Amino acid sequence: MRIKMSLEKLCLVGMILLGSKFATAQEGLPIYSDYLTDNYYLIHPSMAGVANCSKIRLTGRQQWFGQDEAPSLNTISINGRLGDSPSALGAIAFTDKNGYHSQTGAYATYAHHLMFSRNPIDLNMLSFGLSAGFIQYKLDETSFLADGFDPIISGIEQSATNFNIDLGFSYHFINFYAHATVKNVLANEGINFNEQGLSYNNLRTYLFSAGNVFNKLGSEMSYEPSVMYMYREATNESLVDVNMKVYREMDFGKLWAGISYRRSFDGAEFLNGTGVSSQKLQYFTPLLGVNYNDFVFAYTYSYQANSIVFNNGGFHQLTLGYNFNCVKEKYECNCPSVN
After folding, report:
1. Mind listing the pLDDT tens digit for each residue in 158-210?
2. Are 43 and 35 in contact (CB under 8 A)?
3. Contact indicator for 73, 92 with CB cutoff of 8 Å
4. In the chain, what is the greatest distance between 2 CA atoms, to the nearest angstrom?
5. C or N terminus of the chain, fewer CB within 10 Å?
6. Helices H, strands E: what count in the chain?
């Protein structure tokens, strides 16, 4: 068997599996730190229409600049209330490439928000959300074979399409919030690109988020610590994000900055020259953003803090957003995702 694949590409595939263990291109929309850029709807369908404005968000993420076949992700989302009703709609479309694998997907969302407030200014809201959509997976094997025949390599671009749903809930109480979501609830029929290759039928992932915004009365500064926990059922993998954001009110809107630390609870083994070692995925992600009138601009930079990495460069991501159909802020709370 002769396969036309350079040593660099072999290394890239291996490091993708290690460095992108929890955000691979075969398991739906990857879970990065972009939800922290005023974009919780990307991971929690119950956040559709929760704010006093309808929102459009575009994100672009590029990993390992200068490397061929490096992972990249682009998303566009929109969500908002249906008039003055407690119901909301949303939609997400994305394209994700990771080496020879890629996926394109689109989801539509319905959310419903129940108010338990004692009066119109107290925030006490329980939200439910359901997203349904299709994902098309592709495996490009056109460059795998130099010549000859290999029974497990087709030498073509293979594809498969699956339907799935996400469901979740959110709870907001004054400055506190919590979210829980189950992604990819349905079992796939099984995707087999070849007899001994890619095959899976359980993509179910559980996400839990919680946070609170603190500020002193009359202060222009506010602080938002939060956590996000993710568990993948099929492989028993899990990770946690620990986040801190700082906001400053300005005449034109709001400036904000923060830091996110991601740590997996599962390690990957590798040869260190004298034996076998293991390491757990670690990311540090600083973020910077501005809300300028109805526009949102944000930048994040994820740095993989492991001893064995494919590239010392980081992962860059831009977020552009626009808020429209805004209504007057209803609640007396420091709750950026709602007011």
Report:
1. 788 889 999 999 999 999 999 999 999 998 765 554 444 445 677 899 999 99
2. yes
3. no
4. 74
5. N
6. 1, 16
